[in-house]
Amino acid sequence: MPDPYDSIPLDFTERSPEAMRERAQSFYELMAERRSVRDFSDRPVPRECIATAIRTAGTAPSGANRQPWQFVAVDDPALKREIREAAEEEEKTTYEERMSDEWREALAPLGTDWRKPFLETAPWLVVCFAKPYDVDEDGSKTTNYYVQESVGIACGMFITALHQMGLATLTHTPAPMGFLNDLLERPSNERPYILFPVGYPAEDATVPDIDKKSLDEIVQWNR
């Protein structure tokens, strides 16, 4: 058994109920403005901003503190084009052959199709890989736990960090995504989880006029 971690004092800031309500409402209003964007500007975004958003994602809780994620950030135009071409090939097959009528009907109001120009236009592509296991220097494998949950939380924090700083993104998940391992030269113990185009929205960007479910629809209070 490994030795237990040393204990350190908890760094925690308690706030008054009034301050909590104010901060909670302010944060809710900020996040309620967030939208998935498919029309990006090609304006450059500082690498430091992407790094900070990834660093924020890395603070997420994870099973046994294994932190089973790997982020790869791409701004090379040639590599972005290769990623777009590979993604569109899979997406075209999905839309034309793999997608059920029910799935196609669900997507129809959003107006999406297999074409993904944003994968080239957005200044950054950030891919999050999930790691079911790590490989030690001697080649032995170490199992990671609650991988899907842990990586999902990290990706949510990444999206939140981007929105908070004024950047837009989209959770793009072409399936299958194994081409990302090949193009980004990632090992077999890493599985592509989400592909994020990141940047500023185009000046003429539009989004579907949709609503989120109300609080009453998504919570049950048991008292």
Q: What's the short version?
A:
The chain is an alpha+beta fold and 223 residues long. Helix content is 40%, strand content 13%.
Explain the layout of strands and helices.
Blueprint: H1 17-32, H2 47-57, E1 69-74, H3 77-98, H4 101-107, H5 118-121, E2 124-130, E3 133-135, E4 141-143, H6 147-165, E5 168-169, H7 179-184, E6 191-199, H8 215-218
Antiparallel strand pairs: 1-2, 2-6, 3-4, 5-6
Walkthrough of the structure:
The chain has 8 helices and 6 strands; from the N terminus they run ααβαααβββαβαβα. By secondary structure, the chain is of the alpha+beta class. It has a single domain, classed as NADH Oxidase (3-Layer(aba) Sandwich), CATH 3.40.109.10. A hairpin with a 5-residue loop joins β3 (133-135) and β4 (141-143). It is globular, with a radius of gyration of 20 Å.
Summary tags:
223 residues; alpha+beta; NADH Oxidase; 4-stranded antiparallel beta sheet; two-stranded antiparallel ribbon; 13% strand; globular
What is the CATH architecture assignment?
3-Layer(aba) Sandwich
CATH topology: NADH Oxidase
Strand content: 5-15%
SS content category = alpha+beta
Distance between the termini: 41 Å
